[in-house]
Amino acid sequence: MKQFVPAVGAPQEFRDAKKNELEYKLVFGAMNRTEFGGKNGMDHWHVQGMYVVTPSGRLLAGSNNVSDPEETLRQMRKGLALYQQLPKKERLLPAAPDPKTDQIARQFAGVKPPEDGLELRVVTRGLTSKGIRVEDDTRHPFYYKLDRLWYKKDEARKLLPAELGVGARSAVPRPLLERLVTFNLGTNYEPTFYWHTEDIKEASLVAEVTAVKGDKVEVRFQGKAKLGADDPYVRTYQPDLIGTATYDQKAGRFTAFELLALGRHTRGKAGDDNPGPPATTLGVYLTLDGQSANDRMLPTYFFLYGW
Amino acid sequence: MRVRQAAATLLIFVAAARAAAQTDKLTPDNFAKYRDLVEVKQGERAWDQIAWKGTFFDALAEAQKEDRPIFFWIYEGDPRMGC
Fold it and tell me: What pLDDT, on the 0 to 100 scale, is given for residue B79?
């Protein structure tokens, strides 16, 4: 990978662009030469896959393949060989791109996690393999999905009882619980979509202080949820929730956090061709986010936070 | 159509209630077992060892400067998360 500059992108960024930016033209030109070119997808930016592209915007290799590492390696080697054969003036732009004029505007560019807030990494994974084919059903345990959940500093404090003494209990305030439930419990799982508030038939999460050791407050969480929707997809999810956390009163932030949701997920079959059984066991695990280059990313449904 | 879909939802709830008896209920005793099943395993993080540029433009600027090709992973939603 050191011979490349790796980058990720989402079609939605380009659908929203003005279309006269250099970045837009380069990516559109390259992607329009893939199997998704023209009416096959690029007329509405339906494109996905892994591709090798020159800075000048020439597509060299790649395909819509994210599950065959050998094929991906072949395409990378092919792309690298072609790149090295190209004259410099064909593989590079005539001048360095200008960030002021050449890049597309992104709605949440520059948005950072809340200062001293609670940043959680969310892992979603199905735990049922019987009757599920890894080839065509991402509910198979082979697959996992990631997301993020953010709480501001004052919101994070409200996850706990007002008085932090042993035995103190309180319910997580409804708006904060709803953010967790509607945007992260079973939302990154086929059929992938967030829940509407009215889909929450039942939801509860209680925090209880179990120990106070100097500035450190240890808590446990317990709760459950019952979710059901028929718009835009028929699905249900009924998890129990259990977790623990440590809150540093002096620092005003969580130093440890674990919350697990586990329960039965179902999706309707009426009118669709989805493979596999309608019911599976689904787990969602939340913990403190990391600090790597790929962490601290914008939550998928941040645009619904109302911040 | 909505009545039919609501009925379908109800039937699925009933089926789910019956099926739930076949799955462990989450407890403090089995928390670690299920957490470890859900959490990302060490061998599943190869993609995470790569410092992906978050935008094509950021990669373009570096690729132009370093004279290297761009390896572009495009997917609905950020590919590093979920779709």
Answer: 79
Q: How many angstroms away from the CA of B30 is the closest CA of chain A?
A: 10
Nearest to A162 by CA among A287, A254, A249, A257: A249
Is there a contact between B51 and A274 (Cβ–Cβ < 8 Å)? no
Inter-chain CB proximity A230 and B80 less than 8 Å: no
Q: What is the pLDDT of residues B28-41, one digit of tens each?
A: 999 999 999 999 99
Q: Distance between CA B37 and CA A129 in Å, rounded? A: 12
* pLDDT at A185 (0 to 100): 97
Q: Which residues pair with A203 in a beta bridge?
A: A225
Chain A CA closest to residue B56? A7
pTM comes to 0.88
Cβ atoms of residues A188 and B80 within 8 Å: no
HSE value, Cβ hemisphere, 13 Å, CA-based, for A18: 9
Looking up tokens 């449904």 gives A301
* Cα A85 to the center of its chain, rounded Å: 38
Query: How far is it, in rounded angstroms, from Cα B46 to Cα A268?
Result: 34
Count of C-beta atoms within a 10 Å radius of residue A237: 25
Residue spans per domain, chain A = 11-91, 118-304
Cross-chain Cβ contact B81/A55 below 8 Å = no
Q: Across the beta sheet with A5-9, what order do the strands follow?
A: A5-9, B70-74, A49-53, A59-63
B2: nearest CA partner in chain A: A230
ipTM of this complex prediction, to 2 decimal places = 0.90
How many angstroms away from the CA of A249 is the closest CA of chain B?
25
- The distance in angstroms from the start CA to the end CA of chain B is 28
